[in-house]
Amino acid sequence: MFKKLFSVGLVAVLALSLAGCGGQTANNADNAKAAGNKKVTIGFANLTDEITFGQAVKKGMIAEAQKRGWDIIAVDNKLDGATAVTNADTLLTRGINLFVEFNVDSSVGPAIMDKMNAAKVPVIAIDIPHPGATFFGANNPEAGRQLGLWLANYAKTNWNGQVDDLVLVENPTAGEVPQQRMDGIVKGVKEVLPNFDEKKIIRVDGRNDEINAKTKVTDMLTAHPNDRHILIGTLNDQNGSGALAALETTGRQNDAVIGSQGAEGPFLDNLRKGDNAWKASVAYFPEKYGEYVMALADKILKGESVPKENHPEHIVIDKTNVDKYYPAK
Q1: pLDDT reported for residue 328
Q2: Is 197 exposed, middle or buried (0-12, 13-18, 19+ CB in 10 A)?
Q3: What is the DSSP letter of 41?
Q4: Pair (130, 260) in one structural domain
Q5: Of 122, 182, 238, 277, which has fewest CB within 10 angstroms of its CB?
Q6: pLDDT in tens, 16-27
Q7: Above 50 in pLDDT, residue 5?
Q8: Do 312 and 138 form a contact (C-beta atoms < 8 A)?
Q9: Average model confidence (pLDDT) for the chain?
């Protein structure tokens, strides 16, 4: 099922590459020849090795590099911009031919790109754009919109369209592009509920941290003790888990429904263990990121043009379709 789903997306990426949509190419002779008769070394800086999304991405990257007979050096950015800069320096000393960067702190992107450009090392940036890098990652506005549609349809079906609050658990540090995911949630809600009052939107900074999200959502619930129809949309599954913990701690499980982004292991485990407020998550299929990214790397290392932006497919996962996309083991 996965193979069929992602082969379609992968063919689309390769077709766009052949069409010559202007993007990044390898910018020195060694990199252009690397995919031929030179040993290829890929540097990969992971978002974090501590969460299931990062673990799935890393596993796929290593597997796809090994399929090609490439060396891959993987480091952990630990959700920290300063660590990401240090990792970039470290990988450059290892003689990498191409750098795959998964860094949550957009503010250090320009500094990292200056280093890579000076060394003539092409970059593929995952999920958080870096200036001049080939981008692979979420179609944030559409992923957010899909979640907004799901949340609003839940309210329409179960609450007769009544919404007391739309709580957006976000991470402003990640920059403008992930913020489009949160704005997309609002857009989706308003498509289904056109009279929704945006004054009911409550934005909280969940960062990428379950504990912080729990604290911030708990504070929100405490400040709104009488609200009984609360839609919660989160930037990722870590924030979704934190929001659920907040509802359970405050005894407000029946007052809200949570939709998150990622459809990672913790969400899938929660979905299968019973019925609670955390009911939906938008899938990004991180286990297939390696397949997409290394296909782009093939092109770049051969000096071929690739699209500037490349996206996986997004699908809202809930109880109605979880077994179709993630069959129980």
Answers
A1: 86
A2: exposed
A3: E
A4: no
A5: 277
A6: 332 333 344 444
A7: no
A8: yes
A9: 89
What residues make up the domain containing 272? 140-283
pLDDT, residue 167, reads 98
Residue 326 counted as domain residue? no
Query: Mind listing the pLDDT tens digit for each residue in 121-146?
Result: 999 999 999 999 999 998 999 999 99
Output the six-digit token pair for 232: 């919660």
Q: Does some domain include residue 163?
A: yes
Please tell me whether residues 278 and 145 are part of one structural domain.
Answer: yes
In the predicted structure, residue 306 carries a pLDDT above the cut 80: yes
Q: Are residues 238 and 297 in the same domain?
A: no
At residue 274, the pLDDT reads 83
Specify the pLDDT at position 174. 76
Question: Residue 177: which CATH number?
Answer: 3.40.50.2300
Please answer whether residues 244 and 270 qualify as being in contact, where contact means their C-beta atoms are separated by less than 8 angstroms.
yes
* Dist. CA 144–CA 165, nearest whole Å: 17
Residues 294, 256 share a domain: no
The answer on 129 and 9 residing in a single domain is yes
Q: Are 165 and 64 contained in the same domain?
A: no
**Statement: residue 170 has pLDDT above 70:** yes
3-class secondary structure, 224? coil
Tell me if 17 sits within 8 A of 307, measured CB to CB. yes
Percent of the chain, pLDDT > 70? 89
**Residue 70 placed within a domain:** yes
CA angle (245, 250, 255) in 5-degree steps:
90
Determine the pLDDT at residue 176: 83
Structure tokens at 80: 């920290």
Indicate the pairing of strand 123-126 with strand 165-170. Answer: unpaired
Q: How long a stretch of residues is the chain? A: 329
Strand-strand pairing, 278-283 and 315-317: antiparallel
Residue 213 burial (CB count, 10 A) = 30
Residue 34: closest CA among 88, 75, 74, 70 = 70
Instruction: Tell me the helices (H) and strands (E) count for the chain, helix number first.
Output: 12, 12
